[in-house]
Amino acid sequence: MDRAGLPLHTGPESVDLVVADVGSLGLRGELGIGTAIASVAALVCAGLITAVTLVFGQFSLPPVLGTTAGVFTVAAAVLSWQVLGGTRRIEFRPAHDPGVVRVVGSVRSEEYPISRLRRILLRHTVQQSHRYPFVLRTAGQVGLRLEFHRGTVRESLPGGFDVPALADRLRELVSPAGVPVEVETTGPADYDPAVADDVLPRDGVALALIERRPRDRLAARPGYLFWDEVRVAWQVVWDVPRAAAANGVRARRRSSTNPQGQYVSWVEYRAVDVQRVADAIVAGTATLEPAWRTDTEEGLAALAAASAPRRRWPW
């Protein structure tokens, strides 16, 4: 999971690609069931109102019809909103069943033909305001929307953050169902694939860190990454300095004076080493102590202790 709680794991047998919307009966089937439930609710309400008004001798057809229509409209709207607005995580397994998606819910998981997908929604939200949206829409039933926040973007798919490559990957996954994929960008294409090629190679399970820093921020040297960018690349690691030292990541300290005249210093990490360790984390071969990881109780406790505000004594 990344900082936003999204599944972004890449492996040889499965790709947790997206948060998705899928219906076991398809969109029309689920909407049909919702309509039927709303109709039953409206009829039951009409029956109750009719019985009550007959008992008191005040039966009138217009109020009964109006109430029935109102109950049906409200129930149908609520059920349709639940059908259209629900999201669940899906997991593609192209190596075994190219035309099947596995939907992982909070309680159980099921498999569906990929043609039953209604919508695919992927969001990275990593604490900043700049947005770089991209949309992959299809002429069939599959669509992918990407919304990126903050200057540094990490994409877990092979090929890095590259919209055409992402479209090709989605085509590969959905081609058994015959669902065509079309690419559309809904915002400025503020990414440069050449930068990704220069910063991090795309061999194997490659990461691409696209450097989109705010203008008022000091830039790292070519081939180096800031601490917070490394933390985005290493999703399960919170203690970057220790993990970097343990895995032989080359680092250099830099210093400068900011516009306010204050002296600042920071550490930059060699991007190729960050890539190597990221691949090792995916493969499970990286040198990581439990206390450095966010996926262990010990690591979460250490992170909480490190980030807790320190008490300042009055004397």
Question: Main traits of this protein?
Answer:
about 325 residues, 13 strands, three-stranded antiparallel sheet, disordered N terminus, elongated
Secondary-structure map with pairings?
Blueprint (H helix, E strand, L loop, with lengths): L14 E8 L3 H30 L5 H25 L2 E5 L7 E5 L4 E5 L3 E7 L10 E5 L5 E4 L4 E4 L7 H12 L6 E5 L7 H7 L8 E4 L12 E2 L1 H7 L6 H7 L4 E7 L5 E8 H13 L13 H11 L8
Parallel strand pairs: 5-7
Antiparallel strand pairs: 1-2, 1-5, 2-3, 3-4, 6-7, 6-9, 8-10, 11-13, 12-13
Keywords: Membrane, Transmembrane, Transmembrane helix
Report what the structure shows.
With 315 residues, the chain is α+β, with helices and mostly antiparallel strands. Among the domains are: 26-85; 213-315, no CATH class. It is 36% helix and 22% strand. The strands form three sheets. It has an eight-stranded mixed β-sheet, with helices on one face. Strands 11-13-12 form a three-stranded antiparallel β-sheet. A two-stranded antiparallel sheet has the order 8-10. A hairpin with a 5-residue loop joins β12 and β13 (263-270). α1 (26-55) runs antiparallel to α2 (61-85). The longest helix has 30 residues, at 26-55. The radius of gyration is 26 Å and the shape is elongated. The chain crosses the membrane at residues 31-57, 64-84.
